[in-house]
């Protein structure tokens, strides 16, 4: 009997031997790996927190999910040349600073990953030359999607970020490139603070509180982005520029925002070839001086432009669909200066309901009554005759239009003949 | 009713002034199409589309009010109305026949001109979006109809054509030209919290405004009216909107029919 008890005890001990399970954890595999090794992770759910400090590659086979609710990050990356591929992270840490992936060091590579987080998605602290791409980050608007602190020369591209506080947040981080990211449902799409020489290229930030916010930055390139439909908040705008100098905002598309571009206390910036369409206010300047606004296209905005306490801005050669155009010299520019009078702002400032009268036939009368103060109008001395870029133009095929036209003529003519007949 | 309808139609299309409308519409519509063609964007609602709609709003209601009110005032002046009174004719069928005949005639000339103007622009080398054209066409035809009905209402109580003209112009000026100014003036004197509901209600009082708003919404540009109308627009953007428009249409027609019938009946008895 006692022998049997002994055997059972040994059996139980063997089965519960910790060595067996320990060897199966990802962390132990990482510890054992030699630098440069590629660890292929087989499909499954791993409830661990990983710390990677040496140059290895982690590659998921099939659906690999790393889940953690601890205070520390689900994955911590340090050192150099760490690569993460095809990995999903589900992170439910609730601490104020809690983040799914924390990165420091340099030359890391994150590709083809998915993060679902309660707080932050990825945080870069003092990291450089990190490449983050083809990923998906979803959150609960409580932390930033990708947060850069004192991190420079990084590239973030092709990311899809939804429902975060700020989609991508840069502070004290310079010379980074943000390209082709798609951010929506967040507070700010991209948010730059004290970050110089960064490049924002071909990103899409739609349906956020504000598409992109530049604050106290210098020499930033904002090119070819789409900041649209940011209008659900009373302070919403496509692009907010505050204390910015020597930056270039070009070839962006700003459609359907509350304010297309809002610029305050900024100098020496160039805004060119932007498409500003269907916004409540196209561009708004407050205390912005010495900026250049040229060759932009303004179509279908309720108020084209407003400038408060702003001077020495060079506003010329833009296309305004509301301007009266007369080209006498054949130079493609109108000899009639365009005065963007935001009289509708005056009208709707106290009673927003009056916006229903937008382009109402009787509003011409009102326009004279509601003339804006002289210091709020923006004048384009030489507005363009043609737009500076292709504006969407859907045309139905000519044959269908001919059919409609001929059909109308035939139907009405036959009715006319019937109607004329004597009874 | 059908006799009145037919005779009204026949009389109108045989008038010489009818053909001047053909020239007017062709000229105006060709001009509008040319304007729209020079606009960079045909897809969305642009300033140019707004201008086109505004020109239509200036000219169509004015002419329709005058035509509608004259069609009855004329018969009253030349004694035909007296003659008709001796027949056993129901007043409502008279009103409906008048409106129907007049609308058919005006619709024919408008549609014909629309087709011709389209052809002219196409020959010149313009391109259009079908959706935009239909939106403009339906917008104009609705204006045509609604203001003809209002015109007939005016005709039913005036004594002379001169009176009909002055009341038509007055009403046109009020509903089209001075509406925003008048509303802003009036609403300035009511408590602030009343403004929003009153604006919503008054939108349905002025058919020209309602048709214009519906036109803008049909071009997916309802957002230009701002956040204050988000809830109203969310109704008007769904398929439910058809129901609202139909209901509005029925209410509008019954009120105007009842009004003009009552006026004419009262006049018969005098």
Automatic annotation (TrEMBL), chain A:
Keywords noted in UniProt: Membrane, Repeat, Signal, Transmembrane, Transmembrane helix, Ubl conjugation pathway
Protein name (record): Periplasmic copper-binding protein NosD beta helix domain-containing protein
Keyword Nucleotide-binding annotated: no
Signal sequence region: 1-23
Transmembrane segments: 399-418
Superkingdom classification of source: Bacteria
Domain Periplasmic copper-binding protein NosD beta helix residues, every copy: 133-323
Alphabetized InterPro entries for the sequence: NosD_dom, Para_beta_helix_rpt-2, PbH1, Pectin_lyas_fold, Pectin_lyase_fold/virulence, SCF-Subunits/Alg-Epimerases
Entry keyword annotation includes DNA-binding: no
Annotated metabolic or biological route of this protein: Protein modification; protein ubiquitination
Pfam families, sorted: NosD (PF05048)
TrEMBL record, chain B:
Record-linked Pfam families: ABC2_membrane_2 (PF12679)
Gene Ontology molecular function, alphabetical: ABC-type transporter activity
Transmembrane segments: 18-35, 55-73, 107-128, 134-158, 170-195, 242-264
Keywords associated with the record: Membrane, Transmembrane, Transmembrane helix
Superkingdom of source: Bacteria
A single cellular component GO annotation: plasma membrane
Protein name: ABC transporter permease
């Amino acid at each position: 009997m006692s022998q049997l008890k002994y055997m059972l005890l040994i059996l139980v001990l063997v089965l519960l031997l910790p060595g067996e399970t320990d060897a199966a954890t990802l962390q132990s595999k990482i510890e054992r790996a030699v630098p440069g090794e590629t660890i292929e992770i087989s499909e499954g759910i791993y409830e661990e927190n990983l710390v990677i400090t040496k140059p290895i590659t982690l590659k998921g086979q099939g659906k690999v999910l790393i889940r953690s609710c601890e205070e520390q990050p689900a994955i911590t990356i340090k050192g150099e040349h760490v690569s993460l591929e095809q990995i999903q992270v589900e992170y439910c840490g609730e601490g104020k600073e809690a983040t799914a992936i924390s990165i420091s060091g340099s030359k890391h590579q994150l590709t083809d990953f998915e993060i679902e987080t309660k707080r932050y998605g990825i945080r870069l602290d003092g990291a450089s030359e990190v490449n983050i791409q083809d990923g998906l980050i979803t959150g609960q608007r409580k932390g930033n999607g990708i947060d850069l602190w004192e991190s420079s020369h990084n590239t973030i591209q092709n990311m899809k970020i939804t429902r975060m506080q700020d989609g991508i947040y840069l502070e004290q981080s310079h010379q980074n490139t943000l390209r082709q990211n798609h951010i929506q449902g967040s507070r700010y799409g991209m948010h730059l603070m004290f970050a110089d020489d960064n490049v924002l290229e071909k990103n899409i930030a739609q349906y956020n509180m504000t598409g992109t916010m530049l604050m106290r930055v210098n020499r930033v390139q904002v090119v070819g982005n789409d900041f649209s439909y940011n209008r659900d908040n009373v302070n919403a705008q496509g692009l907010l520029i505050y204390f910015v100098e020597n930056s270039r905002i070009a070839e962006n598309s700003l459609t359907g925002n509350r304010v297309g571009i809002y610029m305050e206390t900024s100098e020496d910036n160039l805004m060119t070839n932007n498409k500003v369409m269907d916004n409540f206010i196209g561009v708004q300047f407050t205390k912005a001086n010495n900026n250049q606004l040229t060759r932009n296209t303004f179509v279908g905005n309720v108020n084209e432009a407003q400038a408060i306490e702003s001077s020495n801005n060079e506003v010329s050669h833009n296309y305004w669909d509301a301007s009266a155009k007369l080209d006498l010299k054949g130079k493609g520019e109108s000899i009639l200066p365009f005065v963007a009078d935001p009289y509708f702002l005056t009208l709707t400032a106290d009673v927003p309901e009056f916006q229903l009268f937008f382009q109402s036939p009787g509003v011409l009368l009102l326009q004279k009554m509601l003339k804006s103060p002289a210091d709020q109008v923006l004048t384009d001395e030489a507005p363009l005759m043609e737009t500076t870029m292709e504006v969407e133009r859907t045309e139905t095929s000519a044959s269908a239009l001919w059919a409609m036209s001929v059909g109308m003529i035939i139907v009405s003519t036959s009715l006319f003949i019937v109607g004329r007949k004597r009874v | 009713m059908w006799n009145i309808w037919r005779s009204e139609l026949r009389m109108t299309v045989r008038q010489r002034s009818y053909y001047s409308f053909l020239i007017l519409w062709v000229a105006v519509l060709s001009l509008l199409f040319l304007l729209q063609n020079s606009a960079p964007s045909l897809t969305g609602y642009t300033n140019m589309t707004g201008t086109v709609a505004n020109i239509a709003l200036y000219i169509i209601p004015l002419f329709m009010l005058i035509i509608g009110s004259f069609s009855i005032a004329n018969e009253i002046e030349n004694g035909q109305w007296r003659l008709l009174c001796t027949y056993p004719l129901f007043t409502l069928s008279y009103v409906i026949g008048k409106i129907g005949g007049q609308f058919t005639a005006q619709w024919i000339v408008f549609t014909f001109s629309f087709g011709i103007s389209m052809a002219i622009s196409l020959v010149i080398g313009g391109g259009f979006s079908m959706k935009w054209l239909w939106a403009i066409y339906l917008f104009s035809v609705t204006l045509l109809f609604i203001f003809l009905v209002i015109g007939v209402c005016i005709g039913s109580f005036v004594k002379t054509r001169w009176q009909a003209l002055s009341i038509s112009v007055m009403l046109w000026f009020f509903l089209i030209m001075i509406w925003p100014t008048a509303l802003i003036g009036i609403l300035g004197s009511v408590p602030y919290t009343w403004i929003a509901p009153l604006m919503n209600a008054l939108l349905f009082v002025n058919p020209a405004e309602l048709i214009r708003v519906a036109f803008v919404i049909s071009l997916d540009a309802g957002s230009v009216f701002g956040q204050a109308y988000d809830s109203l627009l969310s109704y008007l953007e769904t398929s439910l909107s058809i129901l609202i428009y139909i209901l509005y249409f029925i209410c509008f027609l019954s009120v105007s029919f009842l009004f003009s019938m009552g006026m004419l009946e009262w006049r018969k008895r005098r």
